[in-house]
Fold this protein.
Amino acid sequence: MAPYWNENWGNPSSRQNRNGIRASAAVSFAREQLAEFLNIAPQRLIFTSGATEANNLALIGHARAKAIEIGKPGHLITIATEHHAVLDPLRQLQKEGFRLTELLPDSDGLITKDQLINSFKKDTLLVSIMTANNEIGVLQPLQELSSLCKEKGIAIHSDAAQALGQIDLQPDLLGVDFMSISSHKLYGPKGIGALILKSDLPILPLQWGGGQESGLRPGTIPVPLVVGFVKAVELAKKDLTSRQKRCRFLRDRFWQGLNDQRPDLILNGSKLKRLPNNLNFSIPGISGSRLHTELRPYISCTSGSACSRGEPSHVLLALGRSLTEAEASLRISIGRSTTSKEVDQAIDIIIKAINKLS
Ligand SMILES: Cc1ncc(COP(=O)(O)O)c(C=O)c1O
């Protein structure tokens, strides 16, 4: 990223000067590289400020365009465990006259084909189902669900912010029409992401201006962020298989180590159909706030999403956890630099804290 903050500071939309041409070439090259990693055509990528903006653009942009085409708002479907960056734009559309079904997943966090089939209405126009959950890491059966949507001619969007860099993400293999991705989930810079779209589906912009990104996301393109984002994807792609293996090993060791000493812990989300780096569990019978106070000096972990505004996790509540259990929960991610020694230390620290509070 460094050269694009300093010597190559040109505006990629100013192609009458050399600086601008260099910046424009860097963006084009990054777009082509990212498209190649995702196995799609480069023109299907719209750079945004992150997954939140990509979700808003896909959901609101497509729903409004369809409502104009049909002459009235229609029906939308999502799952209750989505990130707020999906739930809130859909609830905004509800205020504009659309109807919304929020499907409740099974206790393992997954939804079934039958649930989706049973929720289709005559005027369903858009379904949004995340690829991987940000709190419990579960991977929805997206391929099966998107083929159901295709049969009915319903568009399907997927928030893949947590999946990029953790699985081999190919939007066309998953069969989705819109997909949102973000850079900071895979060690890239914050403030950049993208919407992947299909050219034959109507979509309206949410803002207007200089016409950048095919008019769907006007505004000067942040060249260093685009370059950094794509570099992060390249690095994640390079060691994907070995990192998945390492993370899965450490994550399973973590869970086994905790569970051996405290069999009363409740694993949140499917054990098998989840991201290799995610662990999430609830501890019955203790106070969540006291647990987090105990752990804070030693371990960096959370009970929910950074975007949950401090409320108990709506994801864990949807799985059937009580309010107290949802608060007394830990979401732990294994990172690139996490070692076996750190995992073993963390097991000790967590068990001591739980035993102290029980
Ligand atoms: C599943 C999911 N969607 C959306 C977001 C928001 O992404 P961004 O911060 O890029 O807007 C996040 C992370 O915060 C996330 O985990």
The two ends are 49 Å apart (CA to CA). The pocket of pyridoxal-5'-phosphate is lined by residues 50-52, 83, 85, 130, 134, 159, 161-162, 182, 193, 306-307 (CB under 6 Å). The first strand starts at residue 45 and ends at 48. The chain has a mean pLDDT of 96.
